[in-house]
Specification:
Blueprint lengths: L15 H4 L1 H5 L5 E2 L11 H13 L10 H14 L8 E4 L2 H12 L5 E4 L6 H8 L3 E4 L3 E3 L2 E3 L2 H8 L4 E5 L11 H13 L3 E5 L22 E4 L2 H4 L7 E4 L3 H11 L9 H13 L1 H25 L4 E2 L7 E5 L9 H8 L2 E2 L1 E2 L10 E5 L4 H21 L1
Parallel strand pairs: 1-13, 3-4, 3-7, 7-8, 8-9
Antiparallel strand pairs: 2-10, 5-6, 9-10, 11-12, 12-15, 14-15
Helix pairs in contact: 3-11, 4-11, 5-6, 5-10, 7-8, 12-14
Length: 386
């Protein structure tokens, strides 16, 4: 029997998305569509694996059996066509720590590190907090969505030692094509630039798009995790794929004094179960998310046709430009006070996104409908008051 995906009300569960609304946005009674995790109960296979472990009643030091790595390697091979070797794998409590560890261990203070904004804001922090020089090559928003400005990229690559790349791209939802990845890789190889690729959204692709791991194109460092795919972020179990032996040695030297060589037994058990038996559940989740995107996009554009909405090829995040209707300084009051929506504002992601918002669509259709109606009511009230 096909497992049904269940929506779960996470209020009162110490959920950042829901229980930190007052701390972050100043009020509790809001619809949480910001931080990128899901409002879906984890697949039954994960709940069963953790339940069996909990039932033993003892949670002491655990040995890493290799089952998680085997499940991860199988997932990468069967879902993404990436043949990963076990010796390439390293642990991190999350992709964000892993980005910081790569910057700290694989570049030198003062080195240039390139990002392509608008992009996930911890990229900027990883560069700046580690004393490296941030260089930006903004993406270009055209009629068919976002694209890389390759002329600008090539110029900027002359100034840097590392490119932090996002694939699929958070927040604009692009899934890069083979020829784009090959061109990025060729330029980086020509300029001696290391690619660190955040592929945590690799399992969310739609509408005929296909995720191509950067590691199948060039010997990049790839960072990913089961956390986005199966709603396991709280279990802190990310993976760095480092095919190059010298880079692995740099990683190992840096992380050795941190004493974080392996992760939580809960995270390994959950990840193993998800990768082995969670595929059908994930396929249903993708259908729900893409349906939410189609609904929200259609609902907004029917009433407010001047909005610009980036096509959703990957991730579960929708990028929307409200500049035809709202001034930048109006955004916060409009969404928080008039709509009572908690969203991520585009300014966090830089790259000219100050008039944009990022929606998290990994939730129930009912909440997406409520969010759309909140925008409609607030926009109509504004127009009536003009």
């Amino acid at each position: 029997m096909r497992e049904q995906v269940e929506f779960v009300d996470r209020r009162g569960s110490a959920s950042l998305k829901w229980d930190a609304l007052e701390e972050i946005y100043g009020q509790k009674d809001m619809l949480g569509m910001w931080v990128a995790d899901m409002d879906f109960r984890c697949p039954a296979c994960v709940q069963e694996a953790l339940g069996d472990y909990m039932a033993c009643g003892a949670y002491g030091y655990a040995t890493l059996s290799g089952r998680f790595q085997d499940a991860f390697i199988r997932w990468q091979r069967e879902r993404h066509g990436y043949e990963v070797e076990r010796e390439w794998l390293r642990y991190s409590p999350g992709v964000v720590p892993a980005i910081n560890w790569c910057v700290a261990s694989m570049t030198q203070p003062g080195d240039g590190v390139l990002v392509l904004p608008p992009v996930y804001f911890p990229f900027f922090q990883a560069v700046e907090d580690n004393g490296r020089r941030l260089v930006e090559s903004p993406l270009v928003w055209g009629e068919d969505g976002f694209r890389i400005d390759f002329a600008d990229l090539e110029q900027k690559l002359e100034q840097v030692k590392m490119l932090i790349f996002c694939s699929p791209h958070n927040p604009v939802g692009r899934v890069w094509r083979q020829e784009e990845l090959e061109r990025v890789a060729a330029l980086c190889e020509a300029h001696g630039v290391l690619i660190v690729c955040d592929e945590i959204h690799q399992d969310f692709v739609y509408a005929g798009a296909r995720h191509i791991p950067m590691g199948t194109v060039t010997r990049a460092v790839t960072l990913t995790a089961p956390s986005k795919s199966f709603n396991l972020a709280g279990l802190q179990n990310a993976v760095a794929i480092i095919p190059d032996g010298e880079l692995r040695e740099k990683w190992d030297r840096f992380t050795k004094p941190l004493h974080l060589a392996s992760g939580s037994s809960f995270g390994y058990l959950a990840g193993e179960a998800a990768y082995l038996r969670g595929g059908p559940w994930l396929d249903q989740v993708r259908e729900i998310i893409y349906g939410n995107y189609q609904y929200l996009r259609t609902s907004l554009l029917e009433r407010w046709p001047l909005l610009r909405i980036a096509p959703l090829e990957g991730t579960y995040l929708m990028w929307t430009d409200f500049s035809p209707y709202l001034a930048r300084e109006e955004m916060k009051d409009f969404f928080e006070k008039e709509c009572r929506l908690a969203l991520n504002y585009g300014g966090q992601f830089r790259g000219g996104g100050e008039s944009c918002v990022r929606w998290n669509l990994a939730t129930s259709r009912e909440l997406v409908q409520q969010a759309a109606e909140a925008v409609h009511r607030a926009m109509e009230a504004r127009q009536a008051g003009m």
